[in-house]
Design a protein that fits this description.
Elements lengths: L2 H4 L1 H46 L3 H15 L3 H13 L15 H4 L4 H18 L3 H11 L8 E7 L5 E7 L3 H6 L2 E2 L8 H5 L4 E3 L18 E8 L2 E9 L8 H18 L12 H6 L5 E6 L6 E6 L1 H7 L10 H4 L1 H15 L8 E6 L8 E8 L4 E7 L4 H11 L4 E6 L4 E4 L1 H7 L22 H12 L5 E8 L5 E13 L2 E11 L1 H9 L10 H19 L7 E3 L2 E8 L8 E9 L5 E11 L1 H18 L5 H13 L7 E9 L4 E7 L4 E5 L2 E5 L18 E4 L5 E5 L11 H14 L5 H10 L9 E8 L1
Helix pairs in contact: 2-3, 2-4, 2-6, 3-4, 4-6, 6-7, 6-10, 7-10, 19-20, 20-21
Length: 766
């Protein structure tokens, strides 16, 4: 029995103490933030008075406090008036620069002065934050909400002309993910702001053929250019809940606040100083570290330097520095060599290759949280820990699964801790003692005992993280399906605890079961799981039917690949098609419907089959895309999708193609790769009666054309053009290979990390 179970009141006091500590730290953090904003505002005002009075900073600060007292204003309000006086958003006219500022000249006690001070505090608050996300929240809460604004969007302009969402406030995570990237074609309402530096005021919403974020089509919106030092660095979008009167004062106030947004959008770039002595830096570290050096001619890795902590952790006796890695650490050679190659394949030190653990049975201590970073062209740094860090263990567990209840079992003290949501998952009262994972059998359905045993075997015997789904039987007799994801906590080679998370997946389970309603109802859980799996496979095959590895078509060789990136019966919306037509032409198409799951998949089935039928009409790609847009609009749920539709004519080797907001095509010719920019057409399903422009590309014998979806190249923290450039480089490296081998290697070298599925088509002119 755990200590927590023996002493419920002690566990309750521990939770209360922890809650009180968290509340105290949160309040202290808020106070520090408020003081930082206050100091920033006072410093700005003091700087103004230093210039006006030609005095020292200390005397200017005293003068500021004295004048504030004379007017009866707080020091912060008076400081806001002073800064507004020189910033152009002043509530009263400031005194001449040659006169001594008097308290009467700066004071304004009316509503107009209060509004100006509120605006100044909001701008100062935004400037004091470290992230664009925090600055956007400060601008919305401190200034824009008083003007009726419901949400604020801030996009940063990239080198390729795309807009990347840098910060937002008053916006849900799902909606934000849909507008994370805006292609160079842009919504029509964005173009004046980005291309002509002209704000766009839409008091009754955008035109019917333009799609913008917002709660309703008629909701008022303002699109403003964000300019810094004469350059447009991004675009801001302010959204009202409904129609609004965007008169002159409102426009001036919004424009003033966006001046701050332009400054916070572009953070200063600091050039890192060169490392003075890497060996000395590693020697100063408390945790193990070593450096590897690659021979530029042979590519062999050698151990260059180890700090004392690494020597002790590896249990090394004798001289190791200078030896080949394969000889000095033979059991570590393969995993470390692979990680070093991965680290040097990236262009940023922040993208270090890492493993949760490296199995090295002969070492004196385990290698946990291994990180491998490039340090120059040939040098690699390897860092690790010998004891589990609670933060990284929890991070790894949460990375597997989001939106769940954490738990932690201390095997040394016998105590357990649950997050608040765990009590609801298990149907336990808040004052009940948490149940350790090793004693959870009392709550588990008997048929799932073996699943829990295997989970514990992985954690306690194999010392590695694991996950499973079990049925929990609550006191009221009701069952919940709970996913458990956990990590072992180690000190040297001693297991000291288990940290992990619980997730109630009952809703997801019942939703999937509902998809099987057209079949015989099955009561056994294993039969239900088998049915879900079979349905998912059938649906996936309907979207992306199997295609021979290499198919010969009129004038072309073609091959295609589909890779689902999300497991556990989730099907994505990617699809492709290569189809010879009766007139001798070949249809080549690829598409990607927004989102994942059954709705997205069934929507894409409808689009793919519709395009197949429409292609037999003999019409051009632009006309086919217009019809497909109408199909999308009338599809249940009204999805949106990107797609490319191309018709290849072998008689003259021409490719006529149209794109609906999709990624560019890649043309590989004579060993050189380039992107074919698509026409600026709107997404499928965005607006009715859309027209799609076409492009005709003349191909040559030996040309290879790649059509792909964003799962191949898109990364969470990189601009889209970085992934495209990486794809160009990889395609050129594989230029001499057969087309079937080429697509396999392209898929294997894919840089995308967004958990999205991927479709890839390659066609080569014969």
């Amino acid at each position: 029995m755990s200590t927590s179970a023996q002493d419920p009141s002690g566990a309750g006091r521990e939770r209360d103490d922890l809650s009180a500590a968290v509340a105290e730290l949160s309040a202290r953090n808020a106070d520090l933030r408020a003081e930082l904003v206050r100091r920033h505002l006072l410093d700005l005002a003091t700087g103004v008075l230093v210039t006006r009075l030609a005095t020292s900073p200390s005397e200017a600060a005293e003068q500021l406090a004295r004048m504030a007292a004379e007017t009866g204003l707080s020091t912060e309000d008076f400081a806001a008036d002073v800064v507004n006086g020189v910033a152009g958003t002043v509530a009263v006219t400031p005194p001449p620069a040659t006169a001594n500022p008097s308290s009467a000249a700066y004071a304004d006690r009316g509503p107009r002065g209060d509004e100006a001070r509120r605006m100044r505090r909001a701008m100062t608050d935004a400037e004091a934050h470290h992230t664009v996300e925090e600055a956007a929240a400060a601008l919305l809460d401190g200034g824009l909400r008083h003007l009726g604004v419901q949400s604020l969007w801030l996009w940063r302009r990239t080198g390729s002309g795309c807009l990347q969402l840098a910060g937002h406030a008053g916006v849900g995570a799902t909606e934000a993910s849909q507008w994370r990237w805006i292609p160079p074609s842009l919504p029509a309402s964005f173009r004046p702001a980005l291309l002509e530096d002209s704000p766009v005021w839409l008091a009754a919403g955008p035109p019917p053929d333009d799609v913008l974020p917002g709660p309703a089509p008629q909701a008022a919106r303002a699109v403003l250019p964000l300019r810094l030092r004469g350059t447009t660095v991004g675009v801001a979008l302010a959204v009202w809940p409904d129609r609004a009167d965007l008169d002159g004062p409102v426009r001036r106030a919004v424009t003033d606040l966006m001046d701050v947004a332009a400054r916070v959008l572009t953070a200063p770039v600091w050039e890192p100083a060169p490392l003075p002595a890497l060996d000395e830096l590693l020697d100063a570290m408390a945790h193990p570290a070593l450096t590897l050096m690659r021979d530029p001619e042979t590519g062999a890795l050698a151990v260059e330097h180890l700090n004392q902590a690494a020597v002790e952790a590896l249990g090394i006796a004798g001289q190791t520095a200078g030896q080949l890695l394969s000889r000095a650490l033979p059991l570590l050679h393969a995993p470390l060599a692979g990680l070093a190659e991965l680290a040097h394949s990236t262009s940023s030190l922040q993208r270090a290759a890492r493993l949760p653990a490296v199995d090295h049975a002969d070492a004196a201590a385990p290698l946990l949280d291994v990180r491998v970073l490039p340090a120059g062209a040939e040098r690699t740094v390897v860092l690790w820990h010998t004891s589990t860090d609670r933060g990284t263990a929890a991070t790894r567990a949460v990375a597997r699964l989001q939106g769940v209840a954490p738990f932690e079992d201390n095997l040394l003290t016998g105590t357990s801790t649950w997050g608040e949501q765990a009590y609801g998952i298990f149907g336990a009262p808040r004052d009940a003692p948490p149940i350790p994972l090793t004693e959870l059998y009392q709550r588990v359905h008997p048929e799932d005992d073996e699943d829990l045993t295997e989970l514990l075997r992985n954690l306690t015997q194999r010392r590695r993280g694991a996950a499973t789904v079990i049925r929990v039987v609550r006191d009221d007799g009701r069952q919940r399906h709970v996913r458990i994801t956990a990590e072992p906590m180690l000190d040297q080679r001693t297991l000291i605890g288990i940290s992990g998370i619980y997730q109630d997946v009952s809703a997801e389970f019942h939703t999937e079961v509902a998809l099987s309603a057209t079949f015989d109802q099955l009561t056994a859980v294993q039969a239900q799981a088998a049915l879900r799996h079979r349905l998912a496979l059938q649906l996936q095959q309907a979207i992306v039917p199997e295609m021979p590895a290499l198919e010969v078509l009129p004038g072309l060789q073609a091959t295609a690949r589909y890779r689902p990136a999300v497991q556990e019966y989730r099907v994505g919306g990617d699809w492709y098609d290569v189809l010879p037509l009766p007139d001798g032409k070949v249809l080549v198409a690829v598409g990607d419907i927004a989102g994942h799951g059954i709705d997205s998949a069934t929507g894409m089935v409808a689009l793919r089959n519709a395009l197949r039928g429409l292609a037999f009409t003999g019409h051009t790609p632009g006309r086919l895309m217009s019809w497909l847009n109408e199909v999308t609009i009338h599809t249940q749920g009204r999805p949106t999708a990107t797609a490319v539709c191309a018709l290849y004519d072998p008689s003259d080797r021409t490719l006529r193609w149209a794109s609906a907001g999709h990624l560019p095509l890649l043309l590989l010719r004579e060993g050189h790769a380039r992107l074919l920019a698509p026409p600026k057409n709107i997404l499928l399903g965005a607006t009715p009666d859309a027209r799609y422009e076409e492009i005709t590309t003349q191909l040559k014998p030996g040309d290879t054309l790649l059509l792909f979806t964003d799962g191949l190249i898109e990364r969470r923290h990189d601009a889209l053009d970085e992934g495209l450039q990486a794809l160009l480089r990889t395609a050129e490296e594989l230029a001499g290979r057969e087309i079937d081998d080429q697509v396999d290697r392209l898929l294997g070298a894919a840089t995308g990390d967004t958990d999205d599925d991927t479709s890839l088509i390659a066609v080569r002119v014969r």
